Amino acid sequence: MRDTKKQRRELEKQLTEASSYKHWLATATNLDELEGTLAWREEDGCELLHEALIRDHITAMKRCRDKGDTRALTRVLQEGLYRHLGEIGNPDLYAIAWSGTKVLVSEFLDEVERSMNFLCDNPMPGVSDQQKLRLFRDAERVYGRPALMLSGGAAFGIYHIGVTRALWQEGLLPDVIA
Q1: In a domain, 41, yes or no
Q2: Do 121 and 165 share a domain, yes or no?
Q3: What is the spatial distance between Cα 168 and Cα 164, in angstroms, rounded to a whole number?
Q4: In 88-110, which positions are buried (b, 16+ CB within 10 angstroms) versus exposed (e)?
Q5: Which of 30, 48, 89, 119 has the most CB atoms in a 10 Å sphere around its CB?
Q6: Domain count, the chain
Q7: Is the same domain home to 116 and 172?
Q8: Is residue 114 part of a domain?
Q9: 152 and 130 in one domain?
Q10: pLDDT tier for residue 84 given thresholds of 50, 70 and 90
């Protein structure tokens, strides 16, 4: 028990001293493993989201892509994106583990990305390029764009620089920063 507390304190110290996102993530993953939250990320059964609905949408997106059915894929994506499917935006999902949330959420978002790329790269019968562009703009408006909100004044300035630098190094710095 005492060794676990000591390990936890050491890992938390390493998190604050991490010089890169990769180092921070590796340390966060070790901390999750120590605390048991790494297993939580991978296991089924969570009251914070609707797993069956998310899995159904992942399957439907894959099936539509495999068939080349861009119309049906558009409907599946619109349904998922407009309804914020399965409560994946629930803030409680992102407050349990250091290194991320449920693996299912990442699988869903990866499938959404693959599906949107598929729609972008393939013709949609009866849909002009302008109409296709409008579909993507509508999805962006509803789904949103990432933004980085920095607050706390000069006291947090050095932390803001570190966070901004890490996001920039990983190619994740959003266009909107406030």
Answers
A1: yes
A2: no
A3: 6
A4: beeeebeebbbbbbbebbeebee
A5: 119
A6: 2
A7: no
A8: yes
A9: no
A10: low
User: Are 84 and 131 in a shared domain?
Assistant: yes
H/E element, 16: helix 2-17
The pTM of the whole model exceeds 0.90: no
- Give the CA-trace dihedral at 66, 68, 69, 70, to 10 degrees: 120
pLDDT of 83 > 70? The answer is no
Distance of CA 8 to the CA centre of its chain: 26
Task: List 176's β-bridge partners, or say none.
Answer: 147
3-state SS of 138-172?
Answer: HHHHHHCCCEECCCCHHHHHHHHHHHHHHHHHCCC
Say what the alpha-carbon torsion angle 20, 23, 29, 31 is, to the nearest 10 degrees.
-100
Query: Sign (positive/negative) of CA torsion 85, 89, 95, 101?
Result: positive
Structure tokens at 68: 């080349």
Domain that holds residue 115: 36-144
